[in-house]
Amino acid sequence: MSENEPKPATSTSDAIPTAVVKRRRVSTFWIVPVLALGVVGYLLWSQVMRDRGPMITIVFSDAAGIEPGSEIIHRGVTVGVVRDLSLSGDLQTVSVHAELRPDAEGLAVEGTGFWVVRPEVSLQRIAGLDTLVGPRYIALQPGDAGGNPIRSFVALDDPPRVAPADSDALRLTLRSQRLGNLSTGSPVLYREVQVGVVRSSHLSNDATGVVVTVDIEPRYAALVHENTRFWRSGGVGFDFGLFSGLSVEADSLDALLQASIAFATPESEKKRGERVSTGHAFDLADSADEDWLKWSPVIDVSMP
Q1: What is the Cα 215 distance to its own chain's centre?
Q2: 239-272 burial, b for 16+ CB within 10 Å, e for fewer?
C-alpha cells in the first residue's frame, strides 16, 4: 500500500473500550442499626412530648419582675414556668408565654385568673412579702374543673380578695348605718374561726344605710338561725379601772389586721328560731352585747 492511499477507517469499538457498570449490592449489615436508631429517636421524641405540658399565653398590663424562668405557683407548688415575653404591637401590654406541667393541664380552663405576686402591706391585707427578697412569680386562682380548655388569658391587675363563690354557700344580707373598714374579703367569724366571707357592699336603695352581702360556708350554714346576732369585730379594746388598772382585749391576729364580722346564736332551740335560707337579712351591730358572747349552743357542723 502506497503512502498516498487512504488508510482504512478504524471502528469506534476498537478505539474506545466499552464501560461496563456493575451494580453494587447494599449490604444488609446497615439496615438493622439504622432501624434501631430510628426507633430510639422516635421513643425519645415521644418521651419529650409526654413530658411537656401545654403552652399558654397570659397578657399583662404590667409584668414587672417577670422574666424567662419565672415560676407559676399554685398552693405552694410550681405548676409552670415562663418561657418567653413579648410586647404587643401597640406597646401597651406584655404577653407572657409559659409552659404548664403536664399534671397541671387542668388549670388552663375558662375562669382561671393569673396575677403577679408583689409585696402588699395595708390595713386590709398583708401578702407577697416573700418577693421582697426572692424573685417575683405568678399566682393563679383555678377556674371550674369542668371548664372549657383555653390557651390564652388576660391577667388580673390585683389578686382576687375572695375565692369564687360556692353555689351551696348560705348568702345573707347585713344592714348597717355605715360600712366602716369592712371590705370585700373581710372574714366572717364564729368563735374566732372563719366560717364565711364578705362578698360585696353597697348603699341601700334609699341611701340611708349600707347593705353588706356575706357568704357562710355550706358546712357552717347550720349555725345561722332566725335570732342569730351579727356584729363588727376586730381591733383592740381598752378598759381602765381605778383598782384593776388598764386591761387590753385584742382579737385574733387576722382580726387585728383587717375588719371582720362575728356572730353568735342562742343556746336554747326555742330562742334561736328556725334555720334561715339564702337571702335572709340581719342587722349588723357595731359591737357585741355581753350576753351574745356567752352563747354556746350545741350544733352539729361535722362533715357528712
Answers
A1: 20
A2: eeeeeeeeeeeebeeebebbbbbbbbbbeeeeeb
Are 101 and 193 found together in one domain? no
pLDDT bracket for residue 45 (50, 70, 90): low
**Residue 146 included in any domain:** yes
**Pair 259, 285 in one domain:** yes
163 lies in some domain: no
Return the C-alpha cell found at 149.
380548655
**Containing domain of residue 217, as a range?**
170-294
Alpha helices in the chain (DSSP H): 12-15, 31-51, 253-257, 269-272, 290-294
Q: Are 97 and 86 in contact (CB under 8 A)?
A: yes
Reported as a single tens digit per residue, the pLDDT across 93-131 is 999 999 999 999 999 999 899 999 876 555 445 555 445
Nearest to 264 by CA among 172, 189, 185: 189
Helix (H) or strand (E) holding 296: none
The C-alpha atoms of residue 147 and residue 139 are separated, in whole angstroms, by: 19
Q: Name residues whose C-beta falls within 8 Å of residue 116's C-beta, 6 or more positions apart in sequence.
A: 60, 62, 63, 64, 65, 66, 136, 137, 138, 139, 155
Domain count, the chain: 2
Give the separation between CA 15 and CA 4, rounded to whole angstroms. Answer: 23
Q: What is the DSSP letter of 220?
A: G
pLDDT in tens, 271-293: 999 999 999 999 999 999 999 99
Identity at 159, one-letter amino acid code = P
C-alpha to C-alpha distance for 59 and 161, rounded to whole angstroms: 21
Alpha-carbon torsion, ordered 158, 164, 165, 166, to 10 deg: -160
pLDDT band at 240 (very low <50, low <70, confident <90, very high): very low
